[in-house]
Amino acid sequence: MKTKEMVFAALFAALIGVLGMIPPIPLGFIPVPITAQTLGVMLAGSFLGKKTGALSLVLFIVLVALGLPLLSGGRGGLAPLVGPSAGYILSWPIAAFCIGLAIEKVWSTLKIWKVIVINFIFGVVLVSLIGAPVMAIITNTSIWAGLVGATAFLPGDLIKAIIVAIIVMQIKAVSPIEQKVNN
Question: Could you tell me if residue 102 is left (phi over 0), alpha (psi between -120 and 50 degrees) or otherwise beta?
Answer without folding.
Answer: alpha
